[in-house]
Amino acid sequence: CSICLENVIASDCVVLEGCDREAHSACKECLGTHLKTRVVDGRVQDLCCPCVGSDGCSAHATEAELERLLDAGTMAKYWRFSSMQADTQLRACPRCDHLNSPQLRVPGDPSSGVIAEMECEACGTAYCFHHSGAHAPGRDACAAYDRAMLLEERRAACQMEAQKCPRCGILTSKAQGCNHMTCQCKCEWCWVCGREISKAGLQWHFSPLNPFGCAQFVDKTAQRDHNRLMMLAQCSRILCWPCSLVSMVFCVVWLFAFFVMLLCVGIVGAALSCCCWPLCLCQKWDEYLDRILWVWVSISLTLPTLVIAPPVLVFCLAWCVLAFLLWLAMLPCGADSAVLLEMAGVPPATFFNFLAMAELYD
């Protein structure tokens, strides 16, 4: 059996007519359970061979095979689900499960919409097209049920401190972690501001360079006071924006100096190689070449760093003092130690975000 992998008598094995591969055979009980599970799940269009996809198999069970392998109750579900998939406007009666079609607002015009009030043709039960038997018949009861469900959804969202995905609207709760959210619909959005973020703008949204961005890491205490957090975060980022700009200038200068030094050292190295061309005939030339390249890169990295490091350190120390003074001014607004650490860490954060954005757009 290709499902339970047990050895069974050949007469007890079944192969679907569209497959006709002996290796895909399965015992009647396993194949019946396989098909029944899919019917119960509503996957009536996916009643295929257990080994579909292998050996180019794409066989599906025929209705005659389903009647031989499934019981009457499962077959009734099969016909019901098949009819509902063929006509998406069919609704089952909550009392007798008979399928009924709704009446159109304008007869003969499907685009006009349907009348929500339905009556079963078999038993005469009145029910709703949208909510089945969840409420009493009538348009007013349907509207009242919608309002009640909306209030219940909002109440549940408040209890869970949940927010809606900006794309699909599904409620999402966050227990811990950063504010970068990824919904099951593949939408990436910010927990703080609730806006959707594109992949290209992800680094920029949480970057210290963005005066209107959001903090990526916020604790639960700060989340409870959302309005104060937003105002405080915007204020701190606007104050830190000049520091981020200066830090980015240092990054650009360092990269420029590195490439210039790399070019200069390369030219000098090439000139020395031309002067010392007899070394090329040496058997250890490959070893010498590796050492020359290592020295070349080391000098190109070290010299710009030694030149840029002193002013960067002085700038960082001066910014720490200024950030402390700004933090003292923001204390009446509720600034805590996390705000101070975030403000003091703007220069290194800017450097890493600059490298991340450079890698993203590379």
UniProtKB/TrEMBL annotation:
This is RING-type domain-containing protein. Residues 1-218 form the RING-type domain. One of its GO terms (cellular component) is ubiquitin ligase complex. It comes from the Eukaryota. Pathway: Protein modification; protein ubiquitination. Keywords: Membrane, Metal-binding, Repeat, Transferase, Transmembrane, Transmembrane helix, Ubl conjugation pathway, Zinc, Zinc-finger. The keyword Lipid metabolism does not apply. One of its GO terms (biological process) is protein linear polyubiquitination. It comes from Pyrodinium bahamense. GO terms for molecular function: ubiquitin binding; ubiquitin-protein transferase activity; zinc ion binding. Gene3D superfamilies: 1.20.120.1750, Zinc/RING finger domain, C3HC4 (zinc finger). SUPFAM superfamilies: RING/U-box (SSF57850). The chain crosses the membrane at residues 245-276, 288-306, 312-331.
